[in-house]
Amino acid sequence: MRSETMVSFTKNMLKLDETLEALLLEGLGVQGQSVRAHLDLLGHFVWLSHYGLPPVTEASETMQAHYDNTMNTMIFQHEVEGLEVRLADGRWVAVPPEPGTFTFMAGEQLRVATNGRVPACYHRVRTPSNRERFAVLFGLVQNPGVEVRALDELVDEDHPLVFNPLKHEEYVEWRYSEEGFKVDDALKAFCGVEKVTAMV
Ligand SMILES: O=C(O)CCC(=O)C(=O)O
Ligand SMILES: [Fe+2]
């Protein structure tokens, strides 16, 4: 991809992603000023992914099921399908690579920022066809060194704090350690308020 294409793609995506993040938070009752303050703490990234030919012709898992440790990730699949998301009832659903569409994926940081109101999306990549695959990912992520905290408006008597402030760098290091791989809900194990109370 030419660099001017990347620059204009990134600029446009940043606007779109911030708009979606703002709509989502405003929908939950967060005031405009707080939304802006939240967005100001975020950086963004672009990833260009290439998956080579799957080793076997039947459906093969090319990326293990996981949560993104981002605020959100927007995924563009180029022609070849593969992205699957797990629904609340445990069923896996394929997301078709429709031209001109993208998938907005809630990450673990959004789960913390929304005080658990927006769950992170569990997903994987399984390429049912014997084809190489390209995907472009754009996302928002908390700036390095800044803790992710639940937004004030989303914590009250009816919605007590679910997560202690999340130190992203420490979480990522622990998440991919032997201990982190052992637990199902790593985020809760790492900074869940309930877990801390239980340990006291
Ligand atoms: O390639 C895709 O469709 C998704 C990739 C993904 O989930 C990731 O890189 O975290
Ligand atoms: Fe992912």
UniProtKB/TrEMBL annotation:
GO terms for molecular function: metal ion binding; oxidoreductase activity. It holds the Pfam family 2OG-FeII_Oxy. Belongs to the iron/ascorbate-dependent oxidoreductase family. Keywords: Iron, Metal-binding, Oxidoreductase. It comes from Digitaria exilis. Residues 40-143 form the Fe2OG dioxygenase domain. It comes from the Eukaryota. This is Fe2OG dioxygenase domain-containing protein.
